[in-house]
What does this fold into?
Amino acid sequence: MAAVTLDILALDRRSGVPLQRQLYRALREAILHGRLRPGLRLPATRLLARDLRIARNTVVAVFEQLVAEGYLAARVGVGTVVATLRPEALLHAPPAPRRSAAGTPPALSRRGAALAAVRRGSPDATPKAPARAFQVGLPAVDQFPIELWARLLGRRMRTPTRSALGYDYAAGLPALCEAIAQYLGAARGVVCRPEQVIVVAGAQAGLDLACHLLLDPGDPAWIEEPGYLGARGALLAASATLVPVPVDDEGLDVAAGAHAAPTARVAYTSPSHQHPLGVTMSLARRLALLEWAAHTGAWVLEDDYDSEYRYGGRPLGAMQGIDATGRVIYVGTFSKTMFPALRVGYLVVPPPLVEPFSVAMRHTGHSAPVAVQAALADFIGEGHFAAHVRRMRVLYASRQMRLLRAARRHGLVDVRPAEAGMHLVAELPSDADDVAIAARAVAAGVVVRPISTQYLGRPSRRALLLGYAGVPEREIDRGVEVLARVLQYGSRRSTARGLRSKA
It folds into this structure.
């Protein structure tokens, strides 16, 4: 095989770019663009150096670099040729995968497809521009003492301990675990020792960890109906068989769950402030759930996501505090009390689960940064956390009242007060399309969440969730005015359709 003459190469000696770099780029681009095809033999380094009037060492260095990167190949008895396979080709995006009739990329597993289908509303209900009224679950991030937090975090970053820079605290920094245990004992009635606290990168990470450790594929798991989509996602990711259990004015209907799946492995519930309906599980239901779990050997995942915000007296005690048989795994988060981007949550696990959960944390990537944990321990220990929660409780109560007054003023009569939480429920007629209404609201600049998307089965009610905690008062007023116009428009269209159908 004769070597090709590389007349396509041109070097500019007046350029400030070194000749070696110019030659490397020229050869690489010629290969990538197909001007030098796979298998083509290149001239010997001596001949190419003579033709280009450069030092042979320059050519040798470029060839060696391109061989190392996979663009060229050195073959005994042949010389240097253009490689057949180039790693650079892997950097180019492949054509979009063909989609199945259902619209799911065929590369996903059945479990992956089910998980990807869990959406918080319709695809159209995604804001195209920042809109704060009425995002659900968003705290008043603009009221967080960020300068204080920055000082605490900076102090920890400037003087880190050696262990804080290593792998020693996969299950949580001891100081933070101690601070969380003390706080939960005083504020939530949780009974635990610091070693039972597992610090994770947010409540979702905690749910994911618990579901993977407690469930085998196909195991039945109770989930509230309607319920929190994050819990649904965690259970689906663990390949559980979801069993929707209805929620009424007393919370999770334990008798219905026991009838539907008496041997379920896990029961997920948010007893202190059920998401999304906002009801509180009665003591009778809590005792019934604990009795069922003790009898069947099931685990109860208690999600206590925003219990700090109760406006009618002190927050209710956690169900974990009355669990005498160690069947409850308590899930908490700082996303609602501080700010979501903090990404720090925690589990409180029964003593027999401490070791397996701690070991699993080393393999899951669910750990929160240790420096952040250290600053958070200071934030709690120095009293800043409790003070911030007290301020936000007063602020959120005021914002809820502002939302209720604006709703009455604009004729949204089915928005009712709540004793706790960060959102209200705006009831709609049973034949309303809350998903379509949410999409129209987003187009008008207001974010609401349709409750029907949080049912696993057929929705029994239609409503919108209105978050108010992170919405300034002036935006609450404007948001209600916009939402009222959206609902009036939808009402007029429904009436017109009804008149046409009768005609």
Notes: Confidence is low (pLDDT under 50) at residues 86-97, 495-503. The longest helix spans residues 473-502. The chain has three domains: 19-90, 121-138+387-502, 144-382. The radius of gyration is 30 Å.
